[in-house]
Amino acid sequence: MSLVNDSVLAKRTVRAAERPDLAEVRDYFELLKPRVMSLVVFTALVGLVRAPAELHPVLGFTALLCIAVGAGASGALNMWWDADIDARMSRTASRPIPAGRVEPGEALSFGLVLAAGSVLLLGLFVGWLAAALLAFTIFFYAVIYSMWLKRWTPQNIVIGGAAGAFPPMIGWAAATGSISLESVLLFLIIFFWTPPHFWALALLKKDDYARAGVPMLPVVAGDDETRRQIVLYSLILVPLGVAPAFFGYAGTAYGVASALLGGAFLLSAFDVWCRREGAAAVAAARRLFGFSILYLFLLFAILLAEPLIG
Amino acid sequence: MNDKPEGVVLTEEQRRRRRARSIAIALVLAGLAILFYAVTIVKIGPQVLNRPL
């Protein structure tokens, strides 16, 4: 009996030495991709506020919490699946799994529990359409994008971008229990914003993606084709950005701002197209990447502010 | 006899991190309890007491 106990203890001691139990609370928080989560919460809030229905503030808060946790869950599942790629890219090598602070299995169970919990709570407390959309979003990001598209096609972020575009639709569905043209428009704005945004980054981090074996557009089709596609998607994005005002869903302030910001976006995209060599090309891609974040933030901030200001 | 404690012995740093994780889990559970209470009141309100005996 004592021999058996000694052997079990020895195994446990070896396991403890192999796995140093170094995870901090912030490592688990990092698994949720907090920066992505903040954008998700923000766009979902816009969907909630613009929806033509009243939702009790406690239920609105619950909906946002569930959407945030659901987005975090898909981030954790993505980090679990992509740990091998992350380890080879400078931008992601210090994430909790490749850095050895969190075990892959822990990240997987963490993501699955949060995904199931957030969908269930959203369904029980707020509505099942919103819960179904959240479940589909998590599935789309973790399975369709991370497991399938990302390593297979240069269109990965075009199709995968849908996952990031769903949150305002989920917020809208949480408030109204339905899907409508307005919420589809919000979806389309983010959907067509994603390719120019990520391809500007991919132009800057092309070597990283190539080393990791991720078929991003600049790696597969070259920088010039990427620049052409950035301009094409920007030409679709800008009219979509103005469309909420055109259809009467948003006010004059939004209409004017979206037209001006759209013009600046197009100029920035053409700048990337024109400057193809050296430091000027890098600076242009960096400017577009930075401005694309500001563009989306301002569009949604104005959509959020309009009904609050009156 | 051997004075060393048997089994897995955590370092001070591992102990500190495990305690921080435990506190975080406790806070999340407390937050969930408050959320469940608030949502129940909002959704059912005074009707929470109106049920057949």
Return the domain count of chain A. 2
Number of helices of chain A: 15
Radius of gyration of chain B: 22 Å
Estimated structural class of chain A:
mainly alpha
Overall form of chain B: elongated
CATH secondary-structure class of the largest domain in chain A: Mainly Alpha
Strand content of chain A: under 5%
- What is the overall number of helices of chain B? 1
DSSP strand count of chain A: 0
CATH topology title of the largest domain in chain A: Tetracycline Repressor, domain 2
CATH-level-4 superfamily name of the largest domain in chain A: UbiA prenyltransferase
Number of strands of chain B: 0
Task: Describe the 3D structure.
The complex is a heterodimer of chains A (310) and B (53). Chain A has 310 residues and is mainly α. Chain A folds into two domains: 25-177, Tetracycline Repressor, domain 2 (Orthogonal Bundle), CATH 1.10.357; 180-310. Chain A has helices at 2-18, 25-31, 34-50, 57-81, 83-88, 104-125, 128-149, 156-165, 167-176, 181-204, 206-212, 217-221, 223-246, 252-274, 278-309. Chain A starts with a helix and ends with a helix. Residues 12-17 of chain A have low confidence and may be disordered. With 53 residues, chain B is mostly helical. Chain B has a domain at 12-44. Helices cover 62% and strands 0% of the residues of chain B. Chain B contains one helix and no strands. The longest helix of chain B has 33 residues, at 12-44. Chain B is elongated, with a radius of gyration of 22 Å. The N and C termini of chain B lie far apart (64 Å). The model of chain B has no long low-confidence stretch (mean pLDDT 85). The interface between A and B is medium-sized, with 17 and 16 residues.
Question: Can you lay out the helices and strands and say which pair or pack?
Answer:
The complex is a heterodimer of chains A (310) and B (53).
Chain A: H1 2-18, H2 25-31, H3 34-50, H4 57-81, H5 83-88, H6 104-125, H7 128-149, H8 156-165, H9 167-176, H10 181-204, H11 206-212, H12 217-221, H13 223-246, H14 252-274, H15 278-309
Chain B: H1 12-44
